Amino acid sequence: MKYYEIDYSSFFDKEIYLNPKINILFNEVNKYTIENIDKICELYNSKIFKVPSYIKECAWGSEKIFIAFSNKLFKVINTYKNDTSLQLHPLKKEMWYPIKKSIINDGKKDIVVNTTDEIIIKENTVHSLRKGSVVFEVQDNTLFNHLETIRIYDESNREIHEDRFYSHNMPMFRNRIKIIKRFYGKKCILKNNSFIFSFSDVRVLNEKEYKINKNELWYLSKGTHILNDGDYLVISCKFFKI
Predict the structure, then answer these.
(1) Is the backbone peptide bond immediately before 171 cis, with ω within 30 degrees of 0?
(2) Distance between CA 91 and CA 110 in Å, rounded?
(3) For 44, phi and psi rounded to 5 degrees?
(4) Beta carbons of 180 and 117 less than 8 angstroms apart
(5) Using DSSP, how many helices (H) and how many strands (E) does the chain show?
(6) Helical axes 37-44 vs 28-35, angle rounded to 10°
(7) Of 30, 51, 91, 109, which one has the fewest beta carbons inside 10 Å?
(8) Per-residue pLDDT reduced to its tens digit, 102-158
(9) What pTM was estimated for this model as a whole?
(10) For 3-66, where are the E strands, in sequence order?
(11) pLDDT grade, residue 26 (50/70/90)?
């Protein structure tokens, strides 16, 4: 099975997670999905649900990782111990949304960002998150390990990949971190299967009404009503298929 044979669908199909020719190649995050696939299937059938998560302790702090089952991966990153690596991702794009005032680094300088900002980190963009920062991260869910992260410098003395960085990316610094103002959410009826992350409480309706609390991630199926304007993000998603 080749990577390029993975495609996308509007509907979740667990078969890709159960296929041994493919899942043996999965990275750590998606192998965790395999371990919890029955739970994910049960939740998905309910059309709307709070996405389960787990905590991963890191050299620089912790990641709250929401179980991945779509083309998007979500985390809350808290750098209470140290800076993250100065790194880049050849294959995936990331978006950061500060939960508190935070500091990022673009390989040349520090940049202070606020809770009203959206930080866009395209593929092959050098970036780091400084100690004391907390952000909600939205990234492309790459199923496989191949060249996911290239570390350039690390405060915690983890392995760096200078040879991979220079051979793969010179000249690299053409891609820059982009910072724009974040739009607030508007009440609507969802046209696509989506996720919602709320920076403040929000109410949604799908057969019955639900309250989504601050800093929760929920999955909302197509047709769900978002009942109020507010400080939240809506992210459309697709599912993997073979």
Answers:
(1) yes
(2) 24
(3) -60, -35
(4) yes
(5) 5, 22
(6) 70
(7) 109
(8) 999 998 899 999 999 999 999 889 899 999 999 999 999 999 876 678 888 677 666
(9) 0.91
(10) 7-9, 48-50, 53-58, 61-66
(11) very high
